[in-house]
Amino acid sequence: MAFDFAREWPFFPDDEKLRIFEPRANVAILIGHTATDVGGATKVDAPLAVLLERLPAKFPTSQVAAIGTIATLRDGVERVVQNLLTNPYITVLVLCGDDSPVFTPLEGIRCLYANGVDEGRHVIPGETDGRAAKIFARDALATLSHEEIACFRRRELEIVDARGALDPISFFTDVERRLPMLVRPVATPSWRVLEEIDPYRWRPRTIQVPSGMLEPFAGLRLALRGPDLVVDHDGPDVPRIVANGKADGRAQRAIHEVLRRGLLGDGATFASRLVAFGLAAERAVLAAEFPEDAARVGGHEFDVATGAVCADVADGDAAGAVVARASPLRLDPTGFFKIHVAYEQGTLAADYHEAGGRHVETLAARSAEDLLAAIVGGTYVGGDDETRAQHLAYLAVQIARADFALRTGLRFEEGQGLSSEARKNVGHHLVAATVIAGESLEDTWLRGLTHLREEGLLTTTQKGRVAEAWCTLFGIPEMGAMAIPEAYPASEEHIAHYAAELLAPAPDVRARGDYTYGDRTCHYFFDQIAATGNALTADPTRVYVNQRWVPEVDLPAQAHHRPCLVFDLWFRWGGRLHTLQIARSHDVYGGLPQNALGIARGWAQALARASGLALGDLWFCSISNNFRVGDDAENVRRALRGGVHAAPHVPTLPAPRVEVVEEDACRSGGAEGPIRVRHIIDVAARPVGTADEILAATPILRERLLRYRGELDQVATVIARLRTEAEADGREHSNSLLLSPRDPRVDRSAAATPLVCLQLRRQLGRLHAAAILLGPEAPALTPTLLDLQRHIATAAAIFVGSATFIHVADPPE
Fold this sequence. Notes:
Largest sheet: 7 strands, mixed
Low-confidence stretches: 300-310
CATH superfamily of the largest domain: Thymidylate synthase/dCMP hydroxymethylase domain
Oligomer: single chain
């Protein structure tokens, strides 16, 4: 089978551990154990997305094929080797960070290339009496054959050992210094290795299983007696079986007791009856453990198709009842499954592995019944009768839990009880256009985290796995009274330094091609804070905009670090100074409190002094807002458990009211305050003209979006990036597709068009949009922007999704 490098590399992609830059570059970077400063605290082994934020501003990523992290010897080293074997362009591998003392994977990859493996596929260490030798002797490679390892050792590869520094700034700077000596582009790569091996042997196939039926288990009845699981049988002299104890083993104990007593019979349909009974038993246990969730998704009705009756029963006569106990463990000698929940796809998945560990295939299914029917109907489960029965019982219980988790959003991890921590958005929908207004910064922060934790869509961004909402407005009263939330990891000294940086120049940072908020706001174009202060004093009946987003710098795909806080709007209302801050991407756990405190004590204080206005309220329009599920779920849990301690304050600015409207109803009114939100859930798909035709009636907007500063076609750039993203099979959903007609170098404090910015995002197979608009002409522009969204979606071959319009009206006289 021919290998299509352009479409199939990396052969094993990984959203969280591997970032691809230029696949045909000859240098790759592999990072082991790290220690990173995050918000004043040291984060050990931070996610790759966090490490990449520490890349030097002018780091030549175009000269690097990929940067990845590695944590384990067996799985980690094997994936690295497989990705290297399928990319002959890479001839240099740089090892950074240091080795984990538990697995030493960097030493593993170095010794594997230098020394190979023994007959048992244990990596041969460089030193026989060191820590690595003990680890290599313990953990054998499972997926790579001796022939494939030999091919890996024959391919051209220089391993550069740059281990030592744990801080990513230090080791990235070291790599940047070394790169000129390492970059040797490969014009004609050799594909000989792929003629000697079959890479498709490594990558398991995925089988979407068809609908399946399980055999009813006649004669057995399941019931609940409080938290206990009760099993009754129709036959004479069969005692009642009661399974009690820990919930995560209750069903399995009941199944084992039923098996020992032969109550499921035998014959050709035995396996199907067994898994049907196991599925019903675990569902009954889950209904007792999570009654509200079970009621919401129909917990007691799960088992009608399989013959179970799950009802509550009275204690009755317990005399003669048998307490169920587990049988001694028997392991299947032929292989095993790893069960997981694909929340984003709405499916259950069972990864089948041979006994040696090789992942053969993945069974994907929409329901537990379908998945168990496929397993029973296949040749996956082996061993003698008792071993097969135990394995099937275990799978029935785990798949029942996974199915319940998929339906309810509970967190599933095989072999453990379900957890309500960091619940998943299992409705598979975009959570959009929400207003969260608290009585203090701490109150708003915790409300926002609760919203994300309970309703946020679990998805993948450039940050890795996140719980995300779209276009959320966070309201915080009384900027002058803001205090650091008790659970937030920052000091007064840290916030004071951050606030000062929001006003400070950073010529050295700019010279490296990077940015700071202070430099972009006060020194890049001109001192926008000073200009806004003067403008507010001269005419307080307008909304004034400062910007940090520079389209020709930040929109192209090759842009380096892009600002997250892209615009800030300032206006008077009720005799006070208020702001709406626009964030294209916002880390609600780690970033929102720092941003709010810094803005209040930096930009807002400066503007209050200049305008003579007392400080009012701060609002964020956080277009993509999230928290990192992998990093911060436990931090979020602790923060929410701690509760609100800050004193409450009364806002001056009325909270926006979200109107969910049809397209033709976009001009409805009735808002009490200056910020109005209109949300269209489904933008109609209809034919539209070209971008030039759509924007013809708004010549300034057409000029700014199609020929920004005479050169940049912002619309075409976004379409090209969307196409590239979609062709990459959805491994990233960019938060930086932001169009803006604003040009402070030309307009100064004036607004050339009502549009501040239009951000687009591909999510759940649809193209969503959020627009920030100013002034009385804004409503008339919305049909044009909807047509522009339709045009971009059509050109990028993506279905059109929702649209949200945030309109900020001019203050009253």
